Amino acid sequence: MNELKKHILIIEDEPDINELITISLKKNDYIVSKSFDGEKGLKIARESIPDLILLDLMLPGINGIDVCKLLSSEKETSGIKIIMLTALSQENDIVKGLESGADDYITKPFSVKVLNARIKSVLKRNINLENPTTDSIIIENIQISQRTRSVKIDKKTLDLTYTEFQILFLLSTHPGWVFTRYQIIDRIKGDNYPVTDRSVDFQIVGLRKKMGSKGKLIETIRGVGYRFHLNET
């Protein structure tokens, strides 16, 4: 297999959607494998270890959530990036999928341009979530320093609480990533800073207010969680 090209596996049981995605990916010079059910998809993933999987949630046999859990739990396949394909009404499944190891999701019907943008974004992700090495960043003219725990917007220093800073640092160092409320809690909790899923929403409201016009960069994903917004064209 050509090492210069990224290999993407499509696991989607609807032939028209599977073919549409296949054509788009090949036009963008990806190597493509495809499956129409979870069992065969798992077999291909384990044998070929693709760079990324586009995984439908509603599959015959093994459903997408279980496929995601299995791949994420196995050492050989745990590094494969996964983008879920889902219907708008499947919010609970989106949360389950993200918390079981998926990297992102796309709702049906979707734009081919957005699909390609999401694929490129996910393939670039190499940050270790548990042990981030980034100390400071500048993004969208926001200066954030983990060492000094300071945030500046247009040279103005923001007065953020511990939890507000942790949320902003997490989201801004992973732009485009969708985090569920419980994923946010897992990554920002401290011994003296109890956080609940409802308080995450409260902290986001306060953080956005302090960020002024930049607050809109923290995007609410309805029924799922939050992400630091990336433009998708």
Shape: elongated
- CATH fold category name of the largest domain: Rossmann fold
The biggest beta sheet, please?
5 strands, parallel
Unreliable stretches covering 5 or more consecutive residues: 127-131
Number of strands: 12
Describe the 3D structure:
By secondary structure, this protein is α/β, with parallel strands linked by helices. The protein has two domains: 117 residues, 3-Layer(aba) Sandwich (Rossmann fold); 93 residues, Orthogonal Bundle (Arc Repressor Mutant, subunit A), CATH 1.10.10.10. The chain is 38% helix and 22% strand. The protein contains eight helices and twelve strands. The chain has a five-stranded parallel sheet with strand order 2-1-3-4-5, sandwiched between helices. Helix 2 packs parallel to helix 3. The relative contact order is 0.10. About 2% of the residues have low confidence.
Core attributes:
233 residues; alpha/beta; Rossmann fold; Arc Repressor Mutant, subunit A; five-stranded parallel sheet; four-stranded antiparallel sheet; 8 helices
SSE blueprint and pairings:
Blueprint: E1 7-11, H1 15-27, E2 31-35, H2 38-48, E3 52-56, H3 64-73, E4 81-87, H4 91-99, E5 104-108, H5 112-123, E6 136-139, E7 142-145, E8 150-153, E9 156-157, H6 162-172, E10 179-180, H7 181-188, H8 197-211, E11 218-221, E12 225-228
Helix pairs in contact: 2-3, 6-8, 7-8
